[in-house]
Amino acid sequence: MWVVALLLVIVSCAPRVKVGYETRELLKAKCPKVTYMRVTYCPTKYAYSDRIQHMSLIKVVNVNTGKSLRISVRTNKKVKGLCIPRRYKSFMSRGESFTAKVYVLRCGENGVFSCPRKLRGYASWYGKEFHGRRTASGVRFNMYDYVAAHRTLPLGTILLVKNLKNGKTVRVKVVDRGPYVRGRHLDLSYAAAKKLGMILDGVVPFEAKVLRCGF
Questions:
Q1: 106, 126, 155: which is the final residue of a domain?
Q2: How many Å apart are CA 174 and CA 112, to the nearest integer?
Q3: 118-172 pLDDT, tens digit each
Q4: Which residues in 176-210 are b (16+ Cβ under 10 Å) and which e?
Q5: Number of compact structural domains in the chain
Q6: Residue 120's CATH number
Q7: Structure pTM?
Q8: Looking at the chain, which terminus has fewer C-beta neighbours within 10 angstroms, N or C?
Q9: What is the spatial distance between Cα 73 and Cα 50, in angstroms, rounded to a whole number?
């Protein structure tokens, strides 16, 4: 009981913040509605591109044959254009590459194609219990990396987060989904929380500036 009482005291002592988003001058994620790309093949089970938002659903149409494929795509800066799994080669083309008209059917994993300029709310942190687990972006969660979880922001979004209790800031990358606790709007890794000086507080009011929307 005394732990609960202590947390209530800490939260009650924190400055109140108006929760919400500053939507003026929205930042856009990489989600072109229609674009032409050179398509190659990957020895993987996933499709990759450097030009489309992570986990978007796309339709790839071979401009020469008209054959098409619907597939989700992951962001990889090393891939120039688009590469699809080699198992589709016999269906899509005879050569090692082809030109395709690519339609983005869904931006990212949840259809979010833009970011607010700023966001405000209450941030918590997570660490050892989730260390090594797979995140929504596919990478393993590392509590010592400067990363964060948000419910809807496009994965890969870069935030400059400010602890409104002490003015400390940290730059983090959104790689996961959450938090799913009422009244919390951002989950920070242990390393990010430590830099913000919020380990003992647990939950603090924050303001974040979006430096980049999505990958």
A1: 106
A2: 14
A3: 999 999 999 999 999 999 988 999 999 999 999 999 999 999 999 999 999 999 9
A4: bbbbeeeebbbbbbbbbbbbbebeebebbbbbbbb
A5: 2
A6: 2.40.40.10
A7: 0.81
A8: N
A9: 10
